[in-house]
Write a structure and sequence with these properties.
heterodimer, A: 535 residues, alpha/beta, Glutaredoxin, Rossmann fold, Ubiquitin-like (UB roll), 4 domains, 4-stranded mixed sheet, 13 strands, B: 243 residues, alpha+beta, Alpha-Beta Plaits, 5-stranded mixed sheet, binds flavin mononucleotide, binds iron/sulfur cluster, binds FE2/S2 (inorganic) cluster, 4 iron, 4 sulfur cluster binding (chain A), metal ion binding (chain A), iron-sulfur (chain A)
Chain lengths: 535, 243
């Protein structure tokens, strides 16, 4: 198959569908939980009776403003989200009115303006098709560019050229540590081995994070395409997606997508009629945070207890069943197709010197607009919190923003003008992490915030190593004591000492970073701890 | 294979440990080199002849110049490495780890059958742990006396998994495993059935001998009586590999 064939496929699908207008109903998890499926049904029914045959009702992926769901967009066919008419908090009874509005004026009481900063300040690369296409339809993905990058790589590029493009893009891993993706790919590519593997890490265990889930639910094909391109580049023939079983919708859509991609020849023994062979299997994780750690994840795929082992050897050298293995995050893979389509240089223009491209964040906490956003790296925290997220409700004051989940930390008000990139956040004592962002207002106690994350680490510790297993327990006990107002100066000193020991002595990233929320709240809000100490 | 044949492709590196210039084969670990030269690096989970676990973290040493700590048992030597095994910082960290262990379960040595023959106790004495600054977790663990020859006391277990590994890798029975996570971790026999009802245990006693504490002991021993013998392990392991 060549790019022309793909274009023909897309043209044929377009010709089959004659509608001019679309009513798009978000059927991603968050909107489903606020009742978008009955809305979809009601709209389909109304369309059948009231429609003029030129309109189509379809389910689409996340549009971002999940807190206003169920969201419904009325748009010209193929039109972007920003140039569509958006309705919020839609219920089934609104269906006839929405359909009537196709010819008449919009339903004002349901309007959700798309000219607000929440929509206007985003740059969508990973989410380019999210909210636009039906995630369960392969033809829709193809019409919007799906698999063209894969065909391009395997018919026109050498593996070395693919890696060069990814390296030139400056893309860094979106799973937390920000390791350069091109470098990782070239390391695995250089390993001499007949058998290699590609793994997509879709475990996403950080509390408050749902970026990867949204991508998988909204546009699964771009992840498959990214993995196939990676496999071609490094010389792998087999891939696994490790996804947590708590994401049933993502799992179902992935299964549908894999089946469709196989049938269409984008996966399998001869991908797109070339000698390149690659297939993907799903592995369901039972939902342990530590199984997101790469060596634990691989043990879990192998059917063993999901526990980390010391690195080196790194997976690139010795991974699944001892073979060289490439492991990347969902969002990392989701960036690959656009990089190939538009070139690494194009991608490298977006973002900052050390952090290229965009980042998807899950906004949560005390803000007006919670949901999913994709913004260029280098945007300030202030722009995200005050403009995009609409600021703090109820006239309360901003206190801190927590990034990086249990491995990250808090940033206080005086640093709000810091650009969001890997290195700046690190200087502030936190990390980009996978993209959870929790906004905290003045009513919260920072000791409680630290205690919350420590409780998470304590119960998610795998128990293999002493510092993490028992250190997090003791730290949690000390934080609880201090929060209760029963702590002493010695308790605080002991807490600080444990931070040092657990960080330095733990076996894997979970334990090594578990003290971070304590250290960062101590750094900026030490007075809150001291105020709670018993005199 | 003739005894004189040199291993192909294995080179020798030189490194500095505690200011001593040493040489080592590049496939050796730091702990192996330290043991060979009688440099005392504490360890609880490592046991020659068993696979690597790297869970106790007591063998962490300083990689001088990088200010980084690495586990001696799971780190290969490398040319030019400079290692410090006993800095004040390491001593402090190790003491803290042992204190954490003592606070995690019940280690009242005076009434323990392994008193005087316990690796945890010896280590605590050597590191100068004379009190515990942490609050005791106070979880009551049960005692499994269902086996006619041996006894398991979870209160004394430090989860080093030596028993799990010896039973799986040397005896070939795999009667033991770990259940749960974090503070809920526990050693179990078969599918969490009493040891005495285990269908896989051959009653060989290897797990009892390698257990560093009084967690696995012989029935009928009283305080201070349980002496362990681990010298069989490296010999058995070497014979296995030679086959
Ligand atoms: C405790 C722990 C949990 C992790 N959880 C995840 C996760 O849920 N998803 C993920 O992509 N990476 C996770 N990581 C990071 C992965 O180990 C790994 O670095 C990443 O998947 C590499 O992909 P990337 O280079 O594309 O970022 C976790 C790491 C640790 C230490
Ligand atoms: S640091 Fe925690 S999660 Fe990681 S190996 Fe140790 S006990 Fe397990
Ligand atoms: S006695 Fe032998 S077989 Fe039984 S559990 Fe111990 S090591 Fe395994
Ligand atoms: S029973 Fe003994 S050998 Fe087994 S894990 Fe516990 S302390 Fe280690
Ligand atoms: S889930 Fe519907 S907008 Fe995010
Ligand atoms: S001996 Fe190295 S971690 Fe236990």
């Amino acid at each position: 198959m060549h790019l022309d064939d793909l274009a023909e496929l897309a043209a044929r699908h377009r010709a089959e569908e004659t509608h001019e207008q679309e009513i798009r109903v978000c059927v991603a998890a968050s909107c489903q939980s606020s009742g978008s499926l009955p809305v979809l049904e009601a709209l389909k029914e109304a369309c059948a009776t009231q429609g003029n045959g030129r309109c189509k009702v379809k389910g689409v992926g996340c549009m971002g403003l999940c807190s206003a769901g169920p969201l419904v967009a009325v748009a010209e066919r193929d039109a972007e989200l920003n140039s569509s008419l958006l309705y919020r908090n839609v219920t089934p009874v609104d269906a006839p009115e929405i359909l009537a509005s196709l010819q008449g004026p919009p339903v004002e009481r349901l309007r959700c303006p798309t000219d607000q900063p929440f929509f206007q300040q985003q740059v969508r690369i990973v989410l380019e098709r999210s909210g636009l296409i039906d995630p369960e339809s392969l033809p829709e993905a193809i019409v919007h560019g799906g698999y063209s990058a894969l065909i391009q790589t395997i018919t026109e590029m050498t593996p070395a050229e693919v890696i060069r493009e990814v390296t030139a893009s400056g893309l860094r891993g979106r799973g937390g540590a920000g390791y350069p993706t091109g470098l990782k790919w070239s390391t695995v590519a250089k390993m001499p081995s007949a058998q290699k593997y590609v793994i997509c890490n879709a475990d996403e265990g950080d509390p408050g994070a749902f970026m990867d889930r949204a991508v998988l639910e909204s546009d699964p094909h771009r992840v498959l395409e990214g993995m196939a391109i990676a496999a071609y580049a490094i010389g792998a023939s087999k891939g696994y997606i490790y996804v947590r079983a708590e994401y049933p919708l993502a799992v179902a859509r992935l299964e549908t997508a894999i089946r469709a991609a196989r049938r269409a020849g984008f996966l399998g023994a001869r991908v797109a009629d070339t000698p390149f062979a690659f297939d993907i299997d799903l592995r369901l994780g039972a939902g342990a945070f530590v199984c997101g750690e790469e060596t634990a994840l691989m043990a879990s795929i192998e059917g063993l207890r999901g526990q980390p082992r010391p690195r080196p050897p790194y997976p690139a050298e010795s991974g699944l069943w001892g073979c060289p293995t490439l492991i990347n995050n969902v969002e990392t893979f989701a960036n690959i197709a656009p990089i190939i389509r538009k070139g690494g240089a194009w991608f490298a223009q977006i973002g900052t010197e050390g952090s290229k491209g965009t980042k998807v964040f899950a906004l949560a906490g005390r803000i007006k607009n919670t949901g999913l956003i994709e913004v260029p790296m280098g945007i300030t925290l202030r722009a995200i919190i005050e403009e995009i997220s609409g600021g703090i409700p109820d006239g309360k004051r901003f206190k801190a923003v927590q990034t990086g989940g249990p491995s990250g930390g808090c940033i206080p008000e005086q640093y709000l003008d810091t650009p969001v990139d890997y290195d700046s956040l690190k200087t502030l004592g936190t990390i980009m992490g996978s993209g959870g962002m929790i906004v905290i207002d003045e009513t919260a106690s920072m000791v409680d915030v630290a205690r919350f994350f420590m409780e998470f680490c304590m119960s998610e510790s795998c128990g293999k190593c002493i510092p993490c297993r028992t250190g997090t327990w003791q730290m949690h006990a000390l934080l609880e004591k201090i929060a209760r107002g029963a702590g002493t100066d010695e308790d605080l000193a002991l807490l600080e000492e444990l931070c040092e020991v657990v960080r330095a002595m733990s076996l894997c990233g979970l334990g090594q970073t578990a003290p971070n929320p304590v250290l960062s709240t101590l750094r900026y809000f030490r007075h809150e701890y001291e105020a709670k100490l018993r005199a | 294979m003739p005894l004189t044949a040199a291993q192909p492709n294995v080179r020798v590196v030189t490194l500095k440990i505690d200011n001593r210039d040493l040489s080592a084969r590049e496939d050796e670990t730091l702990l192996e080199v330290c043991r060979e030269h009688q440099i005392p690096v504490p360890s609880l989970c490592y046991l020659e002849g068993l696979s690597l676990w790297a869970g106790c973290r007591l063998c962490m040493v300083e990689l001088v110049g990088q200010n980084r700590l690495v586990a001696a048992c799971s780190t290969r030597v490398a040319e030019g490495m400079v290692i410090q095994t006993d800095s004040p910082r390491l001593q402090r960290y190790r003491r803290t780890l042992v204190e954490l262990l003592f606070a995690e379960r019940n280690h009242v040595c005076s009434v323990c059958v392994s008193n005087g023959h316990c690796e945890l106790q010896t280590l605590a004495q050597r590191l100068g742990v004379d009190h515990v600054r942490f609050s005791y977790r106070q979880v009551h663990y049960h005692l499994d006396s269902s086996h006619e020859l041996f006894r398991l006391d979870h209160n004394r277990c430090i989860l080093c998994t030596r028993c799990v590994r010896v039973c799986d890798e040397i005896e070939g029975a795999h009667a033991w495993d770990v259940m749960g996570r974090g503070g809920q971790c526990q050693i179990i026999s078969d599918l969490a059935t009493p040891w005495g009802e285990s269908e896989t245990c051959t009653s060989c006693g290897k797990c009892v001998q390698v257990c560093p504490t009084g967690a696995l002991v012989k029935q009928g021993t009283s305080a201070g009586e349980m002496v362990k013998d681990q010298h069989f392990l490296p010999i058995l392991a070497r014979r296995r590999h030679a086959r």
